[in-house]
Amino acid sequence: MVGAGIGILSWLTFLISDRGIGCSTAFAQTAGMLERLFRGEKVYLRPYFREVVPKVDWGWMLVVGIALGAFASSLLSGTFSLEVVPALWAQRFGGSVPLRWAAAFLGGVALGFGSRWAGGCTSGHGITGTLQLVIGSWLAAICFFVGGVLTAHLLF
Amino acid sequence: MLKRVRTSEPAQLVLGLVTGIAFGFLLQKGGVTRYEVILGQLLLTDFTVLKVMLSAVLVGMVGVYALRDLGLVRLHPKPGSFGTSVLGGLIFGVGFALLGYCPGTLAGALGQGHLDALFGGAVGTVAGAWLFALAYPRLRRSVLLWGNVGTLTLPEWLKVNPWAVIVPVGGFLVAILLAMEAAGL
Fold first, then answer.
1. Using CB atoms and an 8 Å cut-off, which of residues 86-145 of chain A contact chain B?
2. Domains in chain A: how many in total?
3. Considering only CB atoms, which chain A residues are within 8 Å of B145?
4. A135 within some domain
5. Can you tell me the ipTM of this complex?
6. What's the pLDDT tens digit per position in B9-22?
7. How far apart are CA A154 and CA B92, in angstroms?
């Protein structure tokens, strides 16, 4: 019934914040803010950062909130644990920390690149877009899982 | 009142944080911030992720369209094309399986203490988003426009009342959810 709760949460974001839940934009904004640290205002010469403005906004705070909410929930249910390598990964590929973190980094690069290419992620397209019956979002959500299922079966 | 809250930047920052806390709480409760649960879904052995998503879509769809009929909300469809959704979606999928989290559950995994979500995942995702910003000028007038569908929704495409789509889609989602429950997935 967690899913129903997320559905109700989406009613509230449309109503109170006039937008839908989405997470991947925040990662692009973070990239832009980091680049601004080094290159200053020149970051705005990139067409992408004129469209996706690197700043702390509702969506950026949302991602910070997710980490806090999951932290609170895991503490309350006693499931918080510092984990360096997931057990399932260790079973298949061994307990090497550099190997897992390198794979996680490469996976993250594809995830960040792909989510910005698709214009959204599992929440922005997969939940918010599909619940609005947007054709492009249904297509993206299906492709997230097609790509994911194929890759997972190659890995395991 | 609603308009003032919607246009107040500080209020929206706080609301974003509060919404995120609720979302992160729910994601963690649902178990989808765990690597094993996401990989279980992609390996088709554990359907928790799909159950959470489809029930969120079912409840969200009915509520958001009802609020829209009452004139309280407007839709926010993201523009897309076959080029963005299919190619971007497949690249995303590769990362999804290799990392074992998506951008939202990544933050949640970090919150519950999974360090691979931070040192590998979050750093990589920011790097990947930045690489896309570099590639964007070359992509935006070509591949990103292939098979453009814009912000078209299913009811608009079919030129019917939204409820003529919501009712059958809702029924279909209920049937899938019940079937997964019955199959013990």
1. 86-89, 100-145
2. 1
3. none
4. no
5. 0.97
6. 999 999 999 999 99
7. 16
